[in-house]
Amino acid sequence: MENLDVLVLRTLxxxxxxxxxxxxxxxxxxxxxxxxxxxxxxxxxxxxxxxxSVSGGCIExxxxxxxxxxxxxxGEAKAIPSGPPEFVKYGVTADEAHRFGLPCGxxxxxxxxxxxxxxxxxxxxxxxxxxxxxxxxxxxxxxxxTLETALTPSELALDxxxxxxxxxxxxxxxxxxxxxxxxxxxxxxxxxxxxxxxCDPREEYRGGFHVPGATLVSDMPDDxxxxxxxxxxSCVVALTHDPKLDDLALLEALGTEAFYxxxxxxxxxxxxxxxxxxxxxxxxxxxxxxLRGPIGIYIGSKTPPEIxxxxxxxxxxxxxxxxLPRDMDVAEAKNQRQIAASDDPVACALPQP
Length: 353
Known about the structure:
Blueprint (H helix, E strand, L loop, with lengths): L3 H14 L4 E10 L9 E5 L4 E3 L5 H14 L14 E5 L3 H6 L7 E8 L3 H12 L4 E6 L5 E5 L7 E2 L3 E6 L3 E6 L3 H12 L2 E6 L3 H4 L8 E3 L3 H8 L5 E5 L4 H12 L5 E4 L3 H15 L9 E2 L11 H16 L10 H7 L8 H5 L4
Parallel strand pairs: 10-11, 10-13, 11-12, 13-14, 14-15
Antiparallel strand pairs: 1-2, 1-5, 2-3, 4-5, 6-7, 6-9, 8-9
Helix pairs in contact: 1-4, 5-10, 7-8
C-alpha cells in the first residue's frame, strides 16, 4: 500500500488533468482532541469522489454534501466553488462536535484549495515518487503554489500569508529474514503505509515467502543495509536469530539515521548479542544504546501474528514519537512477572514478546 499523501495527490492530479473540478482540504489547526493530525489531506471531486481523510468520516460527509450541491448549483451556495483558498472550521460548538463525531471539546480547521493546478500537482508527485522531501507552500491571497526541496521533515506552518506543508517519501521497513513472522510483520507494515523490503540469502526461506507488495532480495543482509541507505524515515528489524545474518546488518543500521533498529529474540539471546558486539566488534554500551531488543511491547503474545502486532505497535509508537511506559517493555515486563529467561532452542526460534 503506497503512501497515503502520494495517493491523494496523484488522484487529485488525475482528476484535474481530466478536466474535473476538485478541491484539496488540509487540516491546518486543531484544538483539543482531533481524529486526524495537522497536515492531513483529502481530495474531493465535483461528483463526490473522495480520497484521503481529515476526520473519522462525518466531516468528509458534510464536505461531500455541501460541495457536490454547490458544484451542481443547488442549495444555499449556487456558485461553483472557486477563487483563493478558504478556511472552514468544524466543532466550534458542543452540538457541532457531536454532529461531526469530534471528541468532546475537539475543533479542527481546514484550508480548502479550489481546482489546484494540475502541472504543479504533477511536479509534486514526480518528486515524491523520486524519494524527495518536498515543502509545498500555498499563498493564501491567490492559491499560488511553490515547491522546494526540504532538508528535514517539519510540521505544517501557517501564518497570515502562507501555508507550508512538507510531504515526504514513504516510510520504509527492512526486514532481515523471510520466515513466518516476517510475513505477518510485512503485511502489517504495508497496510500501515510502509514500503517493505525483505532480505534473506537462504533460499529455503525465500521460497516460502509470499507477501504481495513486499520486495524480496537475496543478498547478504549487511550489503543490503548499505544499499538500502536507511534514513530517518526507515526502520531495520532482524528476525533470523542467526548471528551471521543479523549482527553485521544491525551494526550497519546503527550507523545510519534509521528511527528504529531492533532484533527479535529472548532476553538471553539479546544479552548474548550485545556481548558479541562489544567483545568482537568494538562496540560499547553507548554505541548500542539505540539497538532495541527484545523488540515489541509486552502483550503476552504467543503466536507469530500476535508477536507481529507487538512489534508493529512499538515501531509505530517510535515513529510517532510516543514514549511507551516502562512496564510495556518486554524485558521489564517479564522480569516483573518473574518469567524465566529460556534458552530452549524451540522457544528461541519463536520468541514471545
